Amino acid sequence: MPTPPIAAALPGRPPRPSVALVACALALLLGLQPVTTDVYLPALPALTRDLGASMSAAQLTMSALILAFGLSQLVWGPLADRYGRRPVLLTGLLLYTAASLGGTLAGSIDTLIAWRALQGAALAAAVVCARAMLRDLYEPQQAAQVMSLGLSGLGVIAITGPVVGGLAAAAWGWRAALGLVAAMGAVTLLFIALRLPETLPRKNPRATALGPLLGTWWQIARHPTFLAWTLLVSFTYGGLFTVLAGSSFVYIDLLGLSSVAYGLAMGAASTSYLAGTFACRRWVARAGMAAAVRRGAIFSLAGGTLGVVLASAGILQAWAVLLPQCLFAFGHGVHQPCGQAGAVGPFPQAAGAASALAGFVLAAVAFGVGLWLGQALDGRLLPYALGLGFWSLLTATVAWTLVQRHGQPARALPAP
In 161, 203, 301, 406, which residue has its Cα 20 to 30 A from 110's Cα atom? Predict the structure, then answer.
């Protein structure tokens, strides 16, 4: 399908970069999320042994990253509205690369946890600015199409990440896998520094003043369009994070798959996600964002329901886990572009603050899922399946109710 047309730049806006350039920037910036987690996961057992750490301490390397990622978005968003996207991006990517290198050289698990927390805080700058710059350049429906194009590139990264990380860890040890993360950060930093211009049309010098900022967040949080899209993208990510945090237990420990077969299974699910982004682009162009997620929710709910049914029936086969996962991943590929574009759609003058608040909610959901899985996984498949089914039900409910009622913004937040 051809890329969305580029409208002429509005008066007062900087020249608009091409769709291809924006999509490539989105793929790299948002692709740092799966790189930070997926490339690292195959190295976790070797890392734990080498540093003499307990499994609970090793898990803190992920929890600290997620917590820092969620909280720091509330800082980066207002900074991006005040100083612009480009300086915040360059600062965040420089810190991300440095933190990744620090983690690669860490000599203890406590040091690694600290570097991972800084890595998560820096990663938040990339994600916040990626969503905000999309609102700088496009109206919500076109933004969803461009976002789906960028997330197609993210899908390719997600497919290759676990395999590359596993191969690097097997050949050269866990530090090599973390070194790949640092290399990806450096490549992204170089691309943004050389190719991506500033996209913010007008900086807001009061964006970081506490009183106006709290007032802005309050207006954003009450906006029905923001709530609809933020809940959608947070709930579908809750299902995805259930898979990310629990799938190695299911496939390797419970079903007995090798690490290579596990990587292939995750690659198959990422391929389904990639197909969902293609479908999203087509459906949005034909029928709009609300109609696209209404269709995507069918796949989300089918995946979650099928997983619960098969697990309840006691079917312990790889296909019985992978098929529901692929169905859910396809729906996630539809919901994520629309949700991320829709959440910031009503706020052209406060896109950074809106992106930050939406990202904080999403990260809070992921953190809660991680805590729940740590208690719920008990050697059976059913708790994992119930978790995916729960988030699929919430995703479909929001897609078929709140998004249909409030998916198109009735009014925008007034300019500060």
Answer: 161
Nearest to 322 by CA among 240, 237, 247, 235: 247
Fold classified for 19-199+209-406:
Growth Hormone; Chain: A; (1.20.1250)
Rg of the chain over CA atoms, in angstroms?
A: 20
With beta carbons less than 8 A apart as the criterion, state whether 118 and 68 touch: yes
Task: Report the chain's terminal Cα–Cα distance, integer Å.
Answer: 38
**What burial class does residue 18 get, using C-beta atoms within 10 Å of its C-beta: 0-12 exposed, 13-18 middle, 19+ buried?**
exposed
Q: Which helix (H) or strand (E) holds 77?
A: helix 55-83
Q: Quick check: pTM over 0.85?
A: no
H or E element, residue 149: helix 140-172
Instruction: Give the type of residue at 1.
Output: M
What length is written for the chain?
416
Q: What angle do CA 184, 120, 203 make, to 5 degrees?
A: 90
CB 391 within 8 A of CB 242: yes
SS (H, E, C) 382-397: HHHHHHHHHHHHHHHH
